[in-house]
Amino acid sequence: MPFKASLLRTVAIAVIAVKSSAAQNPPAILTRSVDSVFVENYVRAVDAHPSVGAARSRADAAALRKDASGKTFGTPVLNASAGYSLGADDTPGISIGRVAPEDSIAFSAGVEAPVGAGVYAGAGIAQRVFTDNDAADAQTSVGARVRVPLLKDFAYALNKNETEKLGAAERVAAAELMRTRAALSRDILLAWNLHLRSAADAEAVEQAEQRAEKLLQETSERVGFRDVAGYQLFPAQYEVALRREELSEARQNTAARLESLREKLGMSGVRIEAAAEITAPVSNAVFTVADAIIKHKDLTFSAADALAASPACVEARERLNAAEAALRALVENQKDTLDFTAGAGFRGETANGFVGTDGILTKNTAVFEVGIAYKRPLGRKGDEFEAAAARAEIEAARADLLAVENETLAALTRAQITFAGACGRLALALEAIDRARDALDAEESRFNLGEGTSRNVLDAQKDLTNATRRGIAVAGAVADSLTELYYAAGLEPLEVFSL
Predict the structure, then answer these.
(1) Cβ atoms < 10 Å from Cβ of 103
(2) Cα gap 287→306, rounded to integer Å
(3) pLDDT for 329-381, tens place per residue?
(4) N or C, fewer C-beta in 10 Å, the chain?
(5) Closest by alpha carbon to 41, among 288, 279, 293?
(6) Which residues contact 134 (CB under 8 A, 6 or more apart)?
(7) What is the reported pTM?
(8) Where are the alpha helices (DSSP H) in 110-231?
(9) CATH number of the domain that 462 lies in?
(10) What is the span of the domain harbouring residue 110?
(11) Which among 472, 474, 484, 469 has a CA at the least distance from the CA of 417?
């Protein structure tokens, strides 16, 4: 039966969402998976992998840090104190301030907050009861004050710049998560392709070993009947021994690569209890996968789409945005301070109690103030160097972006060349397999008719084995090149599974 007939095997189907430059809604590529356990564990593995978990936690932390900054800025601040003081002297040489003024029992409380339109406001109340008899019994103060920055922090610019910095950091962390997911997705699929290829190669070697065993048995029988000379046993015996060793190596490679796949899926060791086992693939699965892929051998992605979607490019762009936001924040913080302030209040002193509780009001004072406050450093050298350093960081981030974009476009071009080449070579490889099988059939017929030798048959068997293993390598290259093409285009190589 022609070898290509094996491509008609029924397998599970996985759908890959494709973004092509050829159309807004391009046809999906059907990649055929032969292991439901792998399909079921793929998405879970990407989400649960430690590297993705770490990147996700960093992205969550960056988002929470930005949210925390906004919540903190808008939250009113309460300042309150209460205490008792006897005597006028303060403790010298320390920075801890007094809570209560001299000779008094005191309480004070106030609230400050940004109230909108770039205005900061606060209001407070204080009550002081004197402990000596030479002054009024008590003093009550209430008041409010506003501050409007006119240069530095105008319209809450400091907070806006800080929010921009934290927002850029959040987007950098999100891009890092995208890049980590895409890289892991690529690694998993490459490991899966290698698993299919290794299993197919082991199957090809096993078939070669079985053919050699069969030929040895037939040759032994014919030597017994004296149909062929005894020396024809030796090549067959050699071939059997060689194929057995190759089969042992192939099975060893298959087991090792299976473990590599389980590692990528997060199923190795004891990290995941009762981890499902990846089973042996269906025979010729690597060819089935490749056959489904080459139907879309003309798949291309535009450079603009790749630059826009590539997680590495997104991350580099956001690092540039973060550097620019840091410079804006630095420039804002280096501005001169010019604040307009205004306030109003009331202070009353009483004897024989508090105001409103049988106390006698002895003094009533209304307070109103308005003013301008200005501050700037007398030297700007340090600020100039800091600004120059921030601009250098921007230039570095811009150069990094150009380098990443260059690498992305080169990788996309290489991936498209490799994918198209692998798809074109597959038909030639399959043709070589069919011709090698025809040659083997012919040599077996000649040997049975006594016109050929066991060496002729063994040579034909080796040709078929070599052609098959080469075809397996080419079919694997088709799947690998598609995976790399998706990755270079900025997409997760395998986005959607559907059994």
Answers:
(1) 17
(2) 29
(3) 999 999 999 999 999 998 887 766 555 555 555 566 888 999 999 999 888 88
(4) N
(5) 279
(6) none
(7) 0.74
(8) 157-224
(9) 1.20.1600.10
(10) 77-149+337-375
(11) 484
